[in-house]
Write a structure and sequence with these properties.
Glutaminase, about 10% strand, 2 domains, hydrolase, alpha+beta, glutaminase activity, Beta-lactamase, binds glutamine
């Protein structure tokens, strides 16, 4: 807790000015048509400190598609529902593969490496869906997110969900592969529909940073999981949250983080801050290019690290 709020506010504004001046935005996700159409020239940041101070800069109040950042919340919901039984179906090891890879799934008998690659997130959402209609499972998840973010306006963008559904052959193939290995409990179409809607949740940086307060262990934050589970989710975010870019993110930023192909990143400075960053242009791993840069610069300037 070395940096003062006023200093941090100036830092965020300066960094965002620097990004805007560079005018080199990169390319948004192309494989989901609705995301490919997003204007890449956008960048936002929100940081919430332990005393509740919210510091925002740039497009921090513009909602974006959180995509795989939602996997943190579905994991929390499922751990709350079935506890450690989930780990019979999903591992806790980094994959070193692309987020949508099928490669290890065949080699490892249909048990995905971790809950953040697509295969593992699909199993997690399958567990969320069991015993529920898709609508119910999604409203349970939305209820959780609205509660931890303190905001009932958060919703799902149906156009993004349908756009992913229309082009999601890779995820469908993962789903069918999981089913062939007996690692699914629900019909493939129902799981696919639920998953694309979960990924199509829209949040702003401010809303996402609020949702991360419990994982950061900030005082008075609504807690979606117990403190020990929060620690474990943070560990998974650190080791697996950026797919085959996770080692690099841990090295550069030193904080647990979860990315999504909408260009969002949730990063956690345990005990200190919840951080949300967004810019739609992606790097070669499908992680936000400027979001990663911002996380790096903020962590260095503020002296925040899980390894301090
Ligand atoms: N909905 C996306 C997909 O399954 C999420 C991927 C991501 O954000 N990395 O392909």
């Amino acid at each position: 807790p070395t940096i003062r709020a006023a200093e941090l506010r100036r830092l965020l504004e300066d960094l965002i000015d620097e990004i805007r001046a560079a005018d080199d935005w990169g390319v948004p996700a192309q494989y989901i048509p609705e995301l490919a159409a997003v204007d890449p020239a956008q960048v936002g940041a929100a940081v919430i400190l332990a005393d509740g101070t919210e510091i925002v800069a740039g497009d921090a109040d513009r909602p974006f598609s959180i995509q795989s950042v939602s996997k943190v919340f579905s994991l929390a919901a499922v751990l709350g529902r079935i506890g450690d039984d989930l780990w019979r179906r999903v591992g806790r090891e980094p994959s070193g593969t692309r987020f949508d890879s099928i490669f290890l799934l065949e080699r490892e008998g249909g048990r995905p490496r971790n809950p953040f690659i697509n295969a593992g997130a699909l199993v997690t959402t399958d567990a969320l869906l069991s015993g529920r209609e898709p609508q119910q499972a999604l409203s349970e998840l939305m209820g959780l997110i609205r509660w931890i973010a303190d905001d009932d306006e958060i919703h799902i963008d149906g156009a993004v969900a349908n756009s992913e559904k229309a082009t999601g052959h890779r995820n469908l193939s993962l789903i069918h592969y999981l089913a062939s290995c007996d690692n699914l409990q629900n019909p493939p179409e129902l799981l696919f529909g639920t998953y694309v809607h979960q990924c199509a949740i829209e949040m702003s940086c401010r809303q996402l940073a609020r949702a991360g307060r419990g994982l950061a262990g900030l005082p008075r934050a609504p807690r979606m999981v117990s403190p020990i589970r929060a620690r474990r989710i943070n560990a998974l975010m650190m080791t697996c949250g950026h797919y085959d870019g996770s080692g690099e993110f841990a090295y550069r930023v030193g904080l647990p983080g979860k990315s999504g192909v909408g260009g969002g990143i949730l990063a956690i400075a345990p005990g200190i801050a919840s951080i949300a960053l967004w810019s739609p242009g992606l790097d070669e791993y499908g992680n936000s290019r400027w979001g990663t840069w911002l996380a790096d610069r903020i962590a260095q300037a503020a002296g925040w690290s899980a390894f301090a």
